[in-house]
Every structure is written in C-alpha cells, then in structure tokens.
C-alpha cells in the first residue's frame, strides 16, 4: 500500500515527531511505500493567495475558487510546491496526519496546507462531496496529541467531547473531499508521560498501524 504521512510540529525532538518516525519505520518494515510531508522542516508557506497559481483568470479581483478551477483547466497551473503535495495526496491509499491540538485546532501550517492543496477543479469537482468526493476509496487517519488529560475531553468534561472538537477536521476537511476516515489516534497529556509510558504509546501506535487497513470506517457524524 501507499502511505502519505504529514507532520505538523516545529520540534524534531517532540513526541509528535517520535510518533511520525515510528509510523514511517513500521510501514517501511512491513513492505509499504511511504512518502512524507514535514511541514515545518520544509518551511511550507500556509498563506493562501495569488502566489498559489501560475495562471491568472482575473487579474483585477482575486476569487480563489475561480482561480482554482481555472488552474485545473490550465494543466494544473498551481505553484510547484502545491502540485507536489497534490500529487502525493492523489498517489496515496492512506493519509495520516500527525499533529498537536492547539486551541482546539491543528497548527495553522496544517490548515494552510489543506487550503492550498484541496482545491476546486482538482479535488472538488462535478459537485462531488463526501461519499461522492474525488478522493473516494482512500483512507485518512489523524493522530493527535493534547496537553490536557483525557477526562477533560469527555462530553461533560472541561473542554468537551474530543470527537466534536475534531469534527471540523475529520468531516469538514477529510470526509468532505471523499476520504474514508478511520478512528483518530488520540494521546492525551503527552508532556506529562514518563519515558516508559511514551515507549508504550509508541509501541501501541506501531501495532495499530500494522493492521490499519483492516480497520472499519469511523463515523465522524454531522453534529
């Protein structure tokens, strides 16, 4: 199988980076093809503006969706770094995002990546969304870490239901474009784990990935 792993964390020695490296190692050792996107390491520009295109539909007023569609009509005339990432997404059978939860959301660099990569005309076309999305048949899995403990992310906890917090990503981005979404991997309060606990979490993650293609689809829900 072909796997794309996207990392959104600025520290190479972070626990997120350790989970990222564990995923690469696990898939490679089990005979899968792996491509990576390390957003901070590659200094990916998350700002979405006219620089995302080599072509120009309307030089006087920037309407991003119209420019996206026009770029797709002009032989995918997106910026080079955008085309490279789009090609990776189309190539993979499974996409994994590894990121910390910051203020109830992924780091801005990851959101900016989705804004620039998941474009109309290439990934959104012919009215296709969700089950009819362009990327139907591919799977997606988010692996997220939190600063607060698990009990604060229950439906009646201090922060509220973790699955509701992740829904803008799991449904609004991934399922919307056609991915079949797997149950998120959530590791809570990682800054407070002992070394032994971190080793256990990494081993658990590796073991899950060995059988990830046999997992059922997770219902992300509308609400």
Automatic annotation (TrEMBL):
<dbReference type="InterPro" id="IPR029039">
    <property type="entry name" value="Flavoprotein-like_sf"/>
</dbReference>
<dbReference type="GO" id="GO:0005829">
    <property type="term" value="C:cytosol"/>
</dbReference>
<feature type="domain" description="Flavodoxin-like fold">
    <location>
        <begin position="1"/>
        <end position="199"/>
    </location>
</feature>
<comment type="similarity">
    <text>Belongs to the NAD(P)H dehydrogenase (quinone) family.</text>
</comment>
<dbReference type="InterPro" id="IPR051545">
    <property type="entry name" value="NAD(P)H_dehydrogenase_qn"/>
</dbReference>
<protein>
    <submittedName>
        <fullName>Flavodoxin family protein</fullName>
    </submittedName>
</protein>
<dbReference type="Pfam" id="PF02525">
    <property type="entry name" value="Flavodoxin_2"/>
</dbReference>
<keyword id="KW-0560">Oxidoreductase</keyword>
<dbReference type="InterPro" id="IPR003680">
    <property type="entry name" value="Flavodoxin_fold"/>
</dbReference>
<dbReference type="GO" id="GO:0003955">
    <property type="term" value="F:NAD(P)H dehydrogenase (quinone) activity"/>
</dbReference>
């Amino acid at each position: 199988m072909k796997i794309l792993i996207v990392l959104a964390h600025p520290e190479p020695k972070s626990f997120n980076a350790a989970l990222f490296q564990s995923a690469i190692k696990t898939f490679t050792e089990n005979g899968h093809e792996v491509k990576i996107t390390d957003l901070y390491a590659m200094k990916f520009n998350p700002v979405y503006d006219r620089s995302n295109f080599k072509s120009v539909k309307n030089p006087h007023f920037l309407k991003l969706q119209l420019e996206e569609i026009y770029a797709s009509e002009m032989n995918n005339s997106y910026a080079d770094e955008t085309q490279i990432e789009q090609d990776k997404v189309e190539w993979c059978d499974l996409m994994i995002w590894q990121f910390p939860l910051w203020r109830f959301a992924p780091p801005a660099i990851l959101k900016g990546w989705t804004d620039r990569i998941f474009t109309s005309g290439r990934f959104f076309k012919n009215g296709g969304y969700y089950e009819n999305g362009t990327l139907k048949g591919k799977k997606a899995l988010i692996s997220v870490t939190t600063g607060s403990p698990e009990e604060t992310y229950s439906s009646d906890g201090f922060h509220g239901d973790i699955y509701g917090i992740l829904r803008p990503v799991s449904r609004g981005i991934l399922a919307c474009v056609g991915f079949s979404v797997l149950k998120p991997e959530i590791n809570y309060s990682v800054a407070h784990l002992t070394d032994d606990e971190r080793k256990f979490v990494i081993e658990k993650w590796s073991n899950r990935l060995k059988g990830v293609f046999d997992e059922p689809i997770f219902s992300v829900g509308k609400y």
